[in-house]
Amino acid sequence: MYNQTLRHQEDISLYSNAFGFLRAPLFFEPEKSDADAVVTGIPFDMATSGRPGCRYGAQAIREASVMFAWERRRFPWDFALEDRMKLADCGDLVFPSGDPGAMVEALESHADAVIGAGKRMLSLGGDHFVTLPLLRAHARKYGKLALLHFDAHSDTYKEGSPFDHGTMFARAPKEGLIDPAFSSQIGVRTEYHEEDGFMVIDGPSASELSAKKIARAVEERASGHPVYLSFDIDCLDPAFAPGTGTPVPGGISSAKALEIIRALKGLDIVGADVVEVSPVYDHSGITAIAAAAIALDILYAMAS
Q1: For residue 114, what are the CA distances in angstroms to 74, 104, 111, 134?
Q2: What is the CATH number of the domain that holds 283?
Q3: How many domains does the chain have?
Q4: Average pLDDT, stretch 180-186?
Q5: What is the pLDDT of residues 243-265, one digit of tens each?
Q6: Banded pLDDT at 70 (limits 50, 70, 90)
Q7: Which residues contact 79 (CB under 8 A, 6 or more apart)?
Q8: Most buried of 43, 165, 237, 245, CB within 10 angstroms?
Q9: In the predicted model, what is the mean pLDDT of the chain?
Q10: What is the pTM of this model?
């Protein structure tokens, strides 16, 4: 049975064995649970073009999330997440090693089952390619989506293999999964093209504008459409997130990212992911901690 009391038992230390995100209970058949939202880890990094290692990202984010489990109501939200959302963790996706096609098939099947059972998904990568099969499953349920994409890169590059973490948002519009006319990209500070159709709030602009102005622009752009939120941790400046495969200086701070997410109270966020955490380059753990905080605030934004 679902049990929320585990998170707040005072006799449980922060470093004890708590393997679910935010100490959430484990359900290996989450579609049969009474949870409202399901956390899934995706240990995949075969589509990365930079430094590998983000197959271990979900594990690191879960471990870091325990640091936030003691606080019943996360600052500065005015409600406790558990009062509005039951959370379960189904562990990591299982697929044959070295077979990206099998990963895609397994992830789409898993997401179809979870979403089809009326639950929302928070997925932990893994490299950013995993967003494409997740978008396919969400679009089957909700129709064409508005994408809210935090990243140093646009990921709209036209060239590349069928499994490439830089091409998903060129492929997704062609497949009818997302509509760039209602979609936004925040923090981009590498090459992008206006003809791709997204509203791009680039890295310098994202640092200069207030979180509220960014959130209002995103909400106006999404215009009542179901929203899928994808957060590549390299949206943050490497000072705040060194543990990633393709770090790019000039990004926003973790504080600014959290401010923006907390201001997104007018969006219908139907699914989300946090990707590209590579623990091997994260010796201090700050990238995983930032990712866990961002993931938690995304859940609050869904619940709000």
Answers
A1: 26, 15, 5, 11
A2: 3.40.800.10
A3: 1
A4: 98
A5: 999 999 999 999 999 999 999 98
A6: confident
A7: 73, 303, 304
A8: 165
A9: 92
A10: 0.93
Distance from C-alpha of 33 to C-alpha of 80, rounded to nearest angstrom: 21
- CB-neighbour burial class of residue 197 (10 A; exposed 0-12, middle 13-18, buried 19+): middle
Name the DSSP letter for residue 24: P
d(CA 211, CA 53): 31
Whether 90 contacts 30, CB under 8 Å: yes
- At 201, the amino acid letter reads I
Burial class (CB in 10 A: 0-12, 13-18, 19+), 103: buried
Q: Which H or E run contains 127? A: none
- What gap in Å lies between CA 295 and CA 249, rounded to an integer? 22
CA-to-CA dists, residue 184 to 12, 91, 123, angstroms: 41, 30, 20
Tokens representing 116 are 């089809």
Tokens of 150: 């935090």
Query: How much is the pLDDT for 12?
Result: 52
Closest Cα partner for 172 from 164, 257, 95? 164
